[in-house]
Amino acid sequence: MINIFILEDEILQQSRIDNIIREVIDQKDLKCKTPEIFSSPKQMLDNISEFGSHQLFFLDIEIKGEEQKGLDIAKEIRSRDPNATIVFVTTHTEFMPVTFKYKVAALDFIDKALDEELFKERVCSAIEYTICKVGSNIAQDSFAIETSMARVQVPFNNILYFETSPMIHKVILHTKDERMEFYGSIADVEKADSRLYRCHRSFVVNPDNIIKIDKESKIALFENGESCLISRMKYRGLLEKLNY
């Protein structure tokens, strides 16, 4: 089920986009949660607790008089969640080429001046694309975990390791090209996929991406230079996982 976020500071536009999304979901019986609407970029970013291809963002570009604020927010979303789908809903279609500089890979620019039928078609297309992307990622070998406060889905072969966060009730996921934090526990992660291995009370690793074990220091090393500790009790089990 996909999550839909709307960032729009004008009440009339908020209502318009929300109503159209709800209408599309009802008419086509799509698997989507009720859209969440925000007028404040900070408030929206603070409420993102999940990551993955099931996240869809409809962003205005001009927020409270700042012409490119939506682009800045898109860049922040993309840095946190590379698999999210981003759509701009704006009167500033002239900013379309600028998104290449921001490297946000927006799916679409929907002009607010479009008539209702065309506007609805473009919104519907974005939702259906996101749903298809989720199905595609599930078909590809992916790791997924859902807790009471978060849902994360990433390609399994990108995972290096998980570690407990300094923030209570949070876990940090390290992949080959990103770092993301979500609500959950190391115990939740350990149970989520049998291919992972709990090598320490604070770490769960993907054995497939360990390139070397420092036997003297009891440390697992990864291709990007990152590493994590291995407890004495878990050391032999990890070697067996690695067929050492």
Automatic annotation (TrEMBL):
- Domain annotation HTH LytTR-type: ranges: 143-244
PROSITE patterns per record: HTH_LYTTR, RESPONSE_REGULATORY
Q: Which domain of life is it from?
A: Bacteria
Task: Report which residue ranges the record marks as coiled coil.
Answer: none
Quote the SMART domains the UniProt record gives: LytTR (SM00850), REC (SM00448)
One Gene Ontology term of the molecular function aspect: phosphorelay response regulator activity
Q: Does the keyword Phosphoprotein apply?
A: yes
List every position bearing 4-aspartylphosphate.
60
Q: What is this protein called?
A: Stage 0 sporulation protein A homolog
State the species of origin: Mogibacterium diversum
Question: What are the leading ranks of the lineage?
Answer: Bacteria, Bacillati, Bacillota, Clostridia, Peptostreptococcales
